[in-house]
Amino acid sequence: MKKIDIERLNRENFRSMMNALSRPGSIERIEPLFDSHLLAIANTLLYAEVSYFYKGNEDFELINAITNAKDSNEKEADYLFCDTIDENLFEAGKVGTMKDPEFSSTYIFKCKDFCGTKVKISGPGIDGSFNTSLPISKGFISKFNEKNSYFPLGNEVFFINENAEILGLSRTSKLEIL
Hey, how many other C-beta atoms are within 10 angstroms of the C-beta on 92? Predict the structure, then answer.
């Protein structure tokens, strides 16, 4: 039987997520937990004092037992996980307050790959700007820019593809459709 060092796995996945978020648009790798990259991220982020919402088909029972995080609705959850990129779900999450911007939602969306709409990304963590492709629609980009237009309010968004790669967008990222 193969042993899993969950603490080591969480540290490595957390480092990958922070690298992806600090350099928006860059791609990092995630190691799976229970044969799932989404559950590995959930296990890295969740603990007893945070809440989450999940929309999809993964089995979160083991993550609930390990982390003791609170299952919540999409309007109050600290972390929102989804098996697809859902614009309506993205619109539902909280953006924090001016006094407590950390009380916002972080999104983790699964996707097939990172191909999609051609965009120019700029903002902190990017030397000027660069052009890339993101797995989101023009409507999602519009909502992302709107929700993140009043810093420090906003959301962080992660996309994880079928190849265990993760891409992050921070609330300071600016997206322009090409």
Answer: 16
From residue 120, how far is each of 109, 128, 140, 169 by CA, in Å?
20, 10, 15, 12
DSSP string for 57-91 = SS--HHHHHHH-PEE--TTT-SEEEESS--HHHHH
d(CA 69, CA 78): 10
pLDDT for the residue numbered 2:
73
Which domains are present in the chain?
6-114+136-173 (3.40.50.11310)
pLDDT tens for each residue of 132-158 = 999 999 999 999 999 999 999 999 999
Alpha helical stretches, state H, the chain: 6-22, 37-45, 61-67, 87-92, 138-147
